[in-house]
Design a protein that fits this description.
The complex is a heterotrimer of chains A (about 230), B (about 290) and C (about 325). With about 230 residues, chain A is α/β, with parallel strands linked by helices. Chain A is built from 10 helices and 10 strands. Chain A is globular, with a radius of gyration of 17 Å. Chain C is about 75% helix and about 0% strand. Classes of the chains: A alpha/beta (about 230), B mainly alpha (about 290), C mainly alpha (about 325). Chains B and C meet through helix 4, helix 8 and helix 10 of B and helix 4, helix 5, helix 12 and helix 14 of C.
Chain lengths: ~230, ~290, ~325
């Protein structure tokens, strides 16, 4: 479904990704793990179009994403939940969700999608008129994911969903990922929390200092030493 | 004694009406700043052109006034779009001071263009609206009309911002510009729409102001600085603060103008502004921008 | 060889009026020198990111205080001008102190100063019984217009030398600021106020110092202009147009270069004269029209100004050749 080939990207003269290639097949849950500063967020941004690659190709079901204007990428079916949620703090929960369903294709289905999101997150329905910035971290994460779901994406990008959240909430987030998967959604998660994420995904890539160092099924990676070495340098 | 109070009451009421128009002005400026993070220093000059537009359409070419107003509002809206596309957009990444100076350049340009095109004489719409006598006070109909129209304009903008998708996008982009593409929003388009809206508000203000004041190339200097002070005091980008500050300033100008020459009203307003900065530096609504 | 260039240039400038006595070019030169000094005064604070759009206010204060004290109190400008400078400085403190103390910077500060110059203009107009309002004001001629005590001189040569001296003094002040601790403090502040404060810089005090200096210098320019032209009006010495003109000229000439404001003055004043001569009375408004367009074009394409960009280009070509 999603294919990256030899992607290079960075910020100005600073290069963050070096010849990254990976793929995500339909229905899969894939994770990109790696230590801080590996380039994981850059990877997400280059897929969703927030930054442009300097080389390489990115395609979603054959559609060249590099040639697509960044605001059109969500229409192709990719929704990105950014690092630290990035909700619109002075807008209500419902308004945030509305922004998720901004594209012309999503607007006629607004009520329908809203119902789906509220069913997944009953707490959001309770707080629909609350200003998003005044909610707790966990609630904000739910809202951010809900917002991404409003466009009925086929591929969901989650950038460090567990960051800054209490362990109990983190559990809930990964349970949610399992449920979304069960519903047929393809997911790509970037995470630092290796233990948790490898339990809910099929495959994973290890990204360190901008390059893919290892790839394999979640079970294999959990068992091997590669990860330990990458994180601890041991 | 009762007569003295009546003049004061009349000034207070006129102040409210003036506040309505000033609130409209500050709304436009706040909108542009809140969303695009640029201050249109030439905002008052856009209004000046709108006023000339009304003059030419209504007084010279005898276009019915409502139609003239509609043309004006759309016209100045287009001016806003042009301003953004030609001057602001190329400078979006530049230092804020450059953006300010560029709109300063446009201010120069508009003032001189008006001087060259229309001459420096004061022009009047020539519309005599009745003066109502209410409870012994003289309330000019044009002021009342201006107030009502300003209120309606603000309500319409409020509804647009809160009930439409584009309006939601405008509010969102002011809060987090970077992730807008993730929502499928084309930021450039939103900026253009916001500029059109800011321009249209200026056009509406022009229609209202021209009912009461003569137009000349430098008329913008009469209310431009005050509008800036209002927005700064209300905290740039803060609509509620701007709204409140507009009425406070209007009252000061109106009551100050009652006892002294009109210019002193502005001086008092500025003095009030300086005092307020000491007293409540965060602005009237205490929301740091 | 290049070290002596400024001295040679200076000598030429001083000798000029004695060799070339035609009054009209001398008049233009005097006007250029006075405005160059005004623009340099603005750039003294403008170069540190403290962009004031209200220096017209200080110039107006300088001009009107001097003239009013002379006409109403018979006070010689030798006393009047220092008082005018004081007034300008006080006004600067009154407006800038709350701004700096409460961290009002950037957009906000520019707008407040913009309003300031507008208000000064309003005050001048409102006190029309004393100041003549928009019709302008004339200091009374003393002893037929040539008196040291009244600081009035009929001879253009004298004025030329005075203007030259003040202009040179302005450049000197610019250089002193350039080499001072104040400059380091202000550059640190313009980069990151909080960091600067953390290293012990008294942010408000430093900013106030440069603002008062700039305001006082600008007031001096206003006073000089008044004494030379013997006629002032609100829109030639104060108000938003003058303020913007100042900024425009410095931007065109180059804000970070000492001679930038002077180059800007030369360009704008010559341009205005050329337009005035070619269009005659129909020129009203055309010069500002051209300024407006040029300002926008300069900001978009040459934010460092002509002189600044030239120096940059020169510096860069030297790097590549070595």
């Amino acid at each position: 479904m999603l294919e990256l080939k030899s992607v290079r990207a960075g910020y100005g003269s600073f290069q963050a990704l070096f010849d990254v290639s990976l793929e995500v097949r339909q229905g899969e849950a894939v994770s990109v793990i790696g230590p801080n500063g590996a380039g994981k967020t850059t990877l997400m941004r280059v897929i969703s179009g927030l930054i442009r690659p300097t080389a390489g190709s990115i395609a979603m079901e054959g559609v060249d994403l590099v040639a697509t204007p960044s605001y059109r990428i969500v229409e192709i079916g990719i929704a990105h939940v950014p690092e630290s949620r990035r909700l619109f703090p002075r807008m209500t929960v419902e308004d945030n969700l509305r922004m998720g369903g901004f594209t012309p294709a999503a607007r006629p289905k607004f009520q329908e999608r809203l119902a789906v999101v509220y069913e997944l997150f009953p707490r959001l329905r309770e707080r629909r008129r609350q200003l998003a910035g005044s909610m707790s971290g966990g609630e904000q994460q739910m809202c951010a994911i809900g917002r991404a779901l409003m466009s009925e994406p086929r591929l969901l990008l989650l950038d460090e969903p567990s960051a800054g959240l209490a362990p109990v909430i983190v559990e809930q987030v990964f349970d949610l990922v399992k449920r979304l998967r069960a519903g047929g959604l393809t997911v790509l998660i970037v995470e630092q929390n290796v233990q948790q994420v490898l339990r809910v995904v099929d495959r994973a890539y290890l990204l360190k200092a901008g390059s893919i160092r290892a790839a394999g099924t979640a079970a294999d990676l959990l068992a091997s030493d590669t990860i330990r070495q990458a994180y601890l340098g041991v | 004694m009762p007569v003295f109070d009546l003049f004061l009451l009349e000034a207070l009421i006129n102040g409210i009406f003036l506040g309505g128009v000033l609130a409209l002005l500050s709304l436009g400026l706040n909108l542009i700043f809140g969303v695009i993070d640029v201050v249109w220093i030439c905002y008052a000059e856009l209004i000046m052109f709108g006023m000339y537009g009304m003059y030419f359409l209504y007084t010279v070419y005898h276009v019915p006034i409502v139609l003239a107003a509609a043309v004006c509002i759309i016209g100045v809206g287009l001016l806003g779009v042009l301003l953004h596309a030609l001057v602001i957009a190329p400078l979006l990444g530049a230092a804020p001071i450059n953006q300010l100076l560029a709109t300063g350049g446009v201010l120069f340009f508009l003032q001189s263009a008006a001087t060259v095109l229309f001459g420096v004489e004061f022009k009047n719409l020539g519309l005599r609206l009745p003066v109502l006598k209410v409870a012994g006070m003289f309330i000019s109909y044009s002021r009342l009309l201006a107030f009502a129209a300003a209120l309606i304009g603000m309500v319409l903008v409020y509804l647009f911002l809160t009930r439409t998708y584009t309006g939601a996008a405008i509010r969102a982009i002011a809060q987090d510009r970077q992730i807008m593409p993730l929502m499928g929003v084309n930021a450039r388009r939103i900026y253009l729409i916001t500029s059109a809206l800011g321009g249209a508000l200026a056009g509406l203000a022009a229609c209202l102001l021209v009912l009461q004041y003569d137009v000349h190339p430098f008329v913008g200097l009469s209310f431009g600085p005050i509008t800036f002070l209002i927005c700064v005091l209300g905290s740039l980008g803060n609509f509620g603060g701007g709204f409140l500050a507009a009425f406070v300033f209007a009252e000061i100008i109106s009551v100050g103008g009652l006892y002294l020459d009109l210019e002193w009203g502005y001086v008092f307003a500025f003095a009030f502004f300086i005092v307020m900065m000491f007293v409540r530096p965060e602005g009237l609504m205490a929301k740091r921008s | 060889m290049t070290r002596y260039l400024p001295w040679i240039g200076g000598a030429i400038l001083v000798a000029l009026p004695f060799v070339y006595r035609s009054p009209y070019p001398l008049h233009i030169l005097i006007v250029i020198l006075i405005w160059s000094f005004a623009y340099t005064s603005w750039s003294v604070m403008g170069r540190f990111g403290l962009v004031s759009l209200g220096h017209g206010g200080f110039m107006g204060v300088g001009a009107y205080v001097t003239a009013l004290l002379w006409n109403y109190q018979g006070m010689s400008p030798w006393l009047g001008i220092p008082l005018a400078l004081l007034a300008g400085g006080l006004l600067a403190v009154l407006v800038a102190y709350p701004c700096f103390r409460f961290r009002i910077t950037g957009h906000y500060f520019a707008l407040v100063t913009l309003a300031l110059s507008g208000i000064v203009l309003q005050v001048i107009t409102a006190t029309r019984d004393y100041t003549g309002g928009s019709l302008g004001y004339t200091p009374e001629r003393h002893q037929g217009g040539s008196s040291l005590w009244a600081l009035q001189f009929g001879e253009k040569t004298t004025w030329y030398l005075i203007a030259l001296a003040v202009w040179a003094a302005g450049l000197y002040v610019w250089y002193r600021v350039e080499r001072s601790m104040l400059r380091l403090a202000l550059e640190a502040i313009s980069e990151d106020e909080d960091a600067a404060a953390a290293t012990g810089v008294h942010v408000t005090a430093e900013k106030l110092k440069i603002t008062v200096l700039s305001a006082a210098m600008t007031a001096l320019a206003g006073a000089l202009y008044c004494q030379y032209q013997m006629f002032i009006s609100p829109d030639t010495v104060s108000g938003i147009s003058v303020s913007l003109q100042m900024v425009f000229a410095v931007v065109v000439g180059g804000i970070y270069v000492s001679l930038g404001p002077t180059v800007g003055a030369v360009i704008t004043i010559l341009l205005a004269e050329v337009l005035r001569i070619s269009f005659g009375t129909r020129a009203v408004g055309w010069d500002n029209l051209v300024y407006g367009i040029l300002l926008v074009l300069f900001i978009v394409f040459l934010p460092k100004g002509i002189l600044g960009s030239l120096l940059d280009w020169h510096r860069r070509s030297r790097w590549t050749s070595s």
